[in-house]
Amino acid sequence: MASPVKVTSLGLFILDTFEWRDPANASATTKREESVLGGGGTYAIVGARMWLPPTALGIVVDRGNDFPQAAQDELDKMGSQMWSFRQQDRPTTRALNLYTGEHRDFKYLNERNRLEPFDFPPALRSSSFLHFCCSPTRSLTIKSQLTPSWAPTSPALVFEPIPDRCVPAEMDSLLLILPHLAVFSPNHEEAWAFFGKSAEEVNAMGKPGIEEVAQKFQDLGAKQDVVIRSGALGAFALRNGQKGVWGGLMAGLELHPEDLVVATQMAAVSASFTIEQFGLPKFAVGQVGSETWSGGSPATRLAEMKARGVSQ
């Protein structure tokens, strides 16, 4: 019997282009990398893969008629069981990440194919956790499709709002979805943007502002975990008044459902591997079967974190 899937994502798989331009001459490209594996769903699943076997994971990948063999090989190396491919008679979804100095712009280079819950094959519908990255309004549409005809039981919902829809106009929809979420996870600027605060105002608040906005979402009806990701300040997680740190959260909660601190530490470790380069960390298997990500071990990094006493 096949192992049950534990973590899934409705986020997209994207082939990213990264382009850097000279701030003094915005038309001058200084560096460009194409066909980099990306997409919010991809990063979520890879973060979970650092802790769980590929048989416990699942995401739908629309594989276009331009899909590079190198991309296929890299995905297969992580475990072919975790990728549910759909062959498409059109190009793979692609996007541009444009950096001009410290400023970043993002845009799709072709039409994206939005995933719906019913796009999941039956094997992915019994997962413990379902991640989605979208607007609050869109999240309500996703929630409405998780009916008994989709699956007898609904997974725990992990919602990552997209930055450009973290606006006061989405607050009514956010209030409706919050009670249905297991995890709500904006970053600190996105969280305060729902209340009309600018990035400059938010960053001036520092850590107290992060704790304050997490409590606001709890007071507004968040069912379980509010995890505010905050860059150099780490992360702040709130569960019924408990504090913790963000990390490989879905995998952490699957393995340690009663220990938010350990779960967020695992998520922090996953995040640390994903921010050390543009694109995904490089996966490899050693001669004795040990797995590494860009040459490092998540388990070792977690042990080092615990040894330093980093728990909140």
**Count of β-strands:** 15
Average residue-wise pLDDT? 90
Looking at how many chains there are and whether they match, the oligomeric state comes to single chain
Radius of gyration, taken over Cα atoms and rounded to an integer in Å: 19 Å
| Portion in beta strands | 25-35%
* First-residue to last-residue Cα separation: 40 Å
Order of helices and strands: EEEHEHEEEEHEHEHHEEEHHEEH
Number of helices: 9
Strand arrangement in the largest pleated sheet: 5-4-1-8-9-10-11-12-13
Global geometry: globular
How is the biggest beta sheet arranged? Answer: 9 strands, mixed
Coarse structural class: alpha/beta
Q: State the helical fraction.
A: 25-40%
Describe what you observe in this structure.
By secondary structure, the protein is of the alpha/beta class. It is built from nine helices and 15 strands. It has a nine-stranded mixed sheet, with helices on both faces. Strands 3-2-6-7 form a four-stranded mixed sheet. A hairpin with a 2-residue loop joins β6 and β7. The longest helix is centred in the last third of the chain and has 21 residues. The protein is globular, with a radius of gyration of 19 Å. About 2% of the residues have low confidence.
